[in-house]
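User: Assemble these into one structure.

Assistant: Restating your components, then the assembled model:
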Amino acid sequence: MDLTYSEADEQFRAEFRAWLDANLPAEWRQRGFWSRQDRDEGFAMRREWEASKARAGFAGIQWPKEYGGRGGTPAQRAIYDEEMVRYRAPLTVNGLGLTFLAPTLMVIGSDEQKRDIIKPLLHNEVIWCQGFSEPNAGSDLAALQCRAEPDGDEYVINGQKIWTSQAMHSDKMFGLFRTSTEDKKHRGITMLIVDLRSPGIDIRPLKQMTGATDFGEVFFTDVRVPKSNVIGVEGGGWDVAMLLLSFERGASAMPQYTGFRRELDDIVGLARDLGRDQNPLLRQRIASSVVELECLKYHSLHVLTQVEQGKELGAASSMTKLQWSETHQDIGELFADVAGLGHQVSGDGVDDLQRSYLWSRSETIWGGSSQVQRNIVAERLLGLPR
Ligand SMILES: Cc1cc2nc3c(=O)[nH]c(=O)nc-3n(C[C@H](O)[C@H](O)[C@H](O)COP(=O)(O)OP(=O)(O)OC[C@H]3O[C@@H](n4cnc5c(N)ncnc54)[C@H](O)[C@@H]3O)c2cc1C
């Protein structure tokens, strides 16, 4: 494991900090700022700010310059993530496109797809959502039923997707559709790009326990999609999805580590404010969260070193997903115990921690539940019988 950053990496950090100092409004960094903004206006502000960051060259840090990226190293990507969290900069509005679609296209996309999709995505000209899950296809994704019937140069889509994050703000979807029922369950699936402005699409929001509507249901009635919108090959959608999910589960969890560490510091501050910092049981819990977090940090640095050395990670991304999502839930439980009954009501001091606590419940579900990740680790990493 290499724990040092090179001179070029530190130079990159200095440049990025200078840009953030000059371009990130001070009030955006205040706790609770975003929860006070109107949802759509807040989205538009973040969309534009992120586009200006891309124009300044701070987007797609590791991606090739020919597709609008910076051509940097994995270490610079980690520095970028660290600084974004340290500055309390707003999270990306195009996470599904950035984290999942673009890296997948870099590996298996056609030249036209790489050229036409990646740069506009980095500049937030097109916002993407992911249409995989259906009411009866979540962990058992291959059970999906949403049909895309071939018809000349087009497919005609009928059916439904659910839990589609960002559906209400997205321009396009990358989704899995059944293009054949004759083939084996996994083989009849194709990944397609769907323009969400097409006739026949109905998007309905779903409300979460945080009160937000971060996801929704998408209904398709005779929606026509050109055959050139296939990612990979017809019937090969399952392999594309597995590649994409390995990016979703993530290689390194350094950004999560930095964000959770900041939350833990806020919880310690809250314990002091409430006079609970001398409670021996809470002190034990805080210490064990620090230990968990440091394990997450060193696991992430280990993984980062492997990536820098060009090693294949494969199922190891499941370990990363398990570790960061469960660590975050433990920190959420700690917050609830430190804040006591007060955590159930909102107030400026605890709004962000409260939202993060509620949100953390979903982190062991999306991207593959913890049970599913444990199955993967057991079978593929430990070689245990099915
Ligand atoms: C906040 C959030 C955002 C999401 N965003 C998106 C999105 O943008 N696009 C999208 O397509 N989907 C999205 N999802 C859906 C997500 O991918 C699914 O919820 C997830 O795959 C689980 O599927 P399910 O909800 O149908 O649960 P199920 O698959 O029905 O699972 C129910 C329970 O059974 C357990 N289980 C299932 N199979 C096994 C097994 N083989 N072994 C052991 N235990 C098992 C699960 O762990 C879980 O506890 C999102 C979900 C959430 C919560």
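The pocket of flavin-adenine dinucleotide is lined by residues 129-133, 138-139, 163-165, 215, 362, 365-366, 369, 371-372, 375 (CB under 6 Å).
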